[in-house]
Design brief:
single chain; 505 residues; alpha/beta; 5 strands; 7% strand; globular
Length: 505
C-alpha cells in the first residue's frame, strides 16, 4: 500500500531519533564526555588558553603555526570564552557528530525507499538504527575537542544538501559547508575530488553560471583553509610531510582498517573480530556500483570512500581523521542490506548485520578500559595516578611526566601552590634551587622516545634531581597485552604497562 511522502518523513524522523538516542546514550554510558582529555585534545586546548583573542589564535594557524586550518579552533575558542567547561565542549562535539549521523541516516532511508512510494521495510529500518546508533568510531571520537566532529557534520551537510536538493538554488547551498570543511581540515580535498568526478563525470552536469557561482561560494567559505595551505606550503611543507606521512603504505593501510572498523579502540590481538565486517563492507561497496545508472547518488558516497586510499598510499595512518566516512559507510551498508533483504530474505541480511555490529559493540566496550588498546594512552587510568599523587605528596612537590595529560590536569583541575609540574623538562621546575620533599617521576613511551638526544638529557636531568633521594615506591598503571606483538612489528620496544610512577623522598 502506497503512503504519502509526509507520512514517510514522519516514520523516518522516528527512526533517526531512535538511532541518535541510541548513539548519545551509548556514548555517555561508554564514558565519553565526562572524562579526562587525551593528548590530541591538548593540542587544541593549549593554544586556545594561550591566545588573548580570536584574532591572535587565527593568526597562529593562518601563518603555518599548525598543520590544520583555524576554523575548529576558533569554534572551541568561542565556546571556551562563552564559559563552557571541557565536558560541555565535548557535548557540543557530540551534538555535531549526532547531526552527521542523523543526516546520513535520513539520506540512507531516502535512497532505500521503493520507487512505488512504499515505506522502507521494517528490517531495513531496524538495521539502519543499529548501524548508525552503534557506530564505534563515532562513539569513540565523536565527542573530541578536535576538528573531526565539526568536519563530519559539515561533510554530512554538504552531501545531504547536494543530493537532496531539488533545484540549483537548493544545491548551491551545499557549497557553503564544503567551503567551511576546507577551512576546518585539508581532507576536504579528498571530498571535493570525488564530488568533481561525480558531478562532471557521472552526472555529466556542467553549467557555467551555476558551477562558477558554486566554486566561488566554496572558495569564499574555504578561504581560511586556502590561506593556511599557502602558509604551510611556503614555510613548513617538508616537516608536515615527514610528520603526517611517516608510515609505509602497508602499515598505514592496516592501521586505518583496524582503527576505522575497530572504532579506534580494538588492538592487534582483537583484530580478528573486524575481518567479517571488512569483507562485508568491501562486498557491499562493489555491489552498489551500478553501471546502468552512473548518476546514482550512492556513487558519490562510494567515491568518497575510495578517495581515502589517496591518503593511505603515501602513508597517512590516522583513522580518527576519517570519522566523516563512518556514517557514509553506514548509509552504503543500509542500502545494500535493504536490497539483500528484498532480493533474498531478511534473515540473511540481519545475520550479516550482526557480524558488523559485533565489532562495534566490542570496540565500544573497550574504549576506556581495554587491555589490548588501539592507542595505548587511551586506556591510561588517570584518576588512579592522580589519586596516588594526592595521597602520597607531602611538602613541596615536583611532578615530572612524559605524558602531557597528567600535567594538564594537575595544573587545571587539581592545582596546589606547593606543587611544581613539568612536562618532560620545564626549566622553571627542574633548574631551580627549590627543595622538594616529594618527587614523582611519571614515565612511559611517548612521541619523544625515539629522540635519543632528548631522552639522554631527560635521564641526565632526572638523575640530578633525584640524587641523594630514596625511591620509596614504583607503581605501574595501564596494561597493553599487545605490547610484545607491537614491538615485533614496529621495532619499538614497548613495556606491557603503559605508565610507571616512581616516588622519591
Amino acid at each position: 500500500m502506497a503512503i504519502a511522502p509526509s507520512q514517510r518523513w514522519r516514520l523516518y524522523a522516528l527512526d533517526v531519533a531512535s538511532s541518535v538516542s541510541l548513539f548519545l546514550c551509548t556514548s555517555v554510558m561508554a564514558g565519553r564526555v565526562w572524562r579526562f582529555p587525551f593528548d590530541d585534545e591538548l593540542i587544541a586546548l593549549a593554544p586556545i588558553e594561550r591566545s588573548h583573542s580570536a584574532g591572535q589564535l587565527a593568526a597562529f594557524y593562518l601563518h603555518g603555526g599548525d598543520i590544520h586550518p583555524p576554523l575548529s579552533f576558533l569554534l572551541f575558542y568561542g565556546l571556551r570564552h562563552a564559559g563552557l567547561t571541557e565536558a560541555q565542549m565535548r557535548l557540543c562535539s557530540l551534538a555535531m557528530t549526532a547531526l552527521a549521523l542523523a543526516l546520513f541516516h535520513l539520506l540512507a532511508l531516502t535512497l532505500a525507499a521503493r520507487r512505488d512510494f512504499k515505506a522502507v521495510p521494517l528490517p531495513t529500518r531496524l538495521i539502519a538504527v543499529l548501524l548508525f546508533g552503534l557506530n564505534a568510531l563515532a562513539v569513540s571520537q565523536g565527542d573530541a575537542i578536535r576538528w573531526y566532529p565539526l568536519f563530519a557534520m559539515l561533510i554530512a551537510l554538504f552531501v545531504t544538501l547536494y543530493l537532496a536538493g531539488t533545484n540549483d538554488a537548493a544545491r548551491l547551498w551545499s557549497a557553503v559547508p564544503l567551503g567551511l570543511a576546507a577551512s576546518t581540515n585539508f581532507l576536504a580535498v579528498i571530498v571535493a575530488l570525488p564530488f568533481v568526478i561525480y558531478r562532471y563525470g557521472l552526472q555529466r552536469q556542467f553549467r557555467m553560471s551555476f558551477d562558477l557561482a558554486y566554486w566561488l561560494v566554496a572558495a569564499l567559505f574555504g578561504c581560511l583553509g586556502l590561506i593556511s595551505a599557502y602558509s604551510i606550503f611556503v614555510r613548513r611543507f617538508d616537516p608536515v610531510i615527514h610528520t603526517e606521512f611517516a608510515s609505509g603504505t602497508v602499515r598505514a593501510a592496516m592501521t586505518e582498517v583496524l582503527g576505522f572498523f575497530g572504532g579506534d579502540a580494538l588492538g592487534l590481538g582483537q583484530a580478528w573480530i573486524i575481518v567479517p565486517a571488512v569483507i562485508i563492507s568491501v562486498v557491499a561497496v562493489f555491489c552498489q556500483i551500478d553501471r546502468r545508472q552512473p548518476a546514482d547518488p550512492v556513487h558519490l558516497l562510494l567515491l568518497m570512500l575510495a578517495a581515502s586510499a589517496l591518503m593511505i598510499l603515501p602513508g597517512f595512518a590516522k583513522p580518527r581523521s576519517f570519522l566523516y566516512l563512518a556514517p557514509a559507510l553506514a548509509a552504503v551498508l543500509t542500502v545494500f542490506f535493504d536490497r539483500q533483504a528484498a532480493n533474498r530474505n531478511a534473515g540473511v541480511a540481519i545475520l550479516l548485520v550482526s557480524l558488523i555490529v559485533a565489532p562495534s559493540v566490542g570496540a565500544i566496550a573497550n574504549v576506556n578500559f581495554g587491555t589490548r588498546p588501539f592507542k595505548r594512552n587511551s586506556v591510561i587510568p588517570y584518576r588512579s595516578i592522580i589519586d596516588f599523587i594526592q595521597i602520597n605528596e607531602t611538602g613541596n612537590v615536583l611532578v615530572v611526566s612524559t605524558d602531557p595529560v597528567i600535567p594538564w590536569e594537575l595544573s587545571h583541575q587539581y592545582r596546589r601552590d606547593d606543587r611544581c609540574i613539568s612536562y618532560f623538562l620545564a626549566d622553571s621546575c627542574v633548574n631551580t634551587e627549590r627543595r622538594y620533599d616529594s618527587i614523582f617521576i611519571i614515565s612511559g613511551h611517548s612521541n619523544e622516545s625515539a629522540d635519543l638526544a632528548v631522552m639522554t638529557r631527560f635521564a641526565s636531568v632526572l638523575a640530578t634531581v633525584t640524587a641523594g633521594r630514596q625511591k620509596v615506591a614504583t607503581i605501574h598503571f595501564g596494561e597493553d597485552k599487545d605490547a610484545a606483538l607491537k614491538s615485533r612489528l614496529t621495532g619499538v620496544a614497548l613495556e606491557s604497562y603503559i605508565l610507571s610512577v616512581d616516588l622519591y623522598r
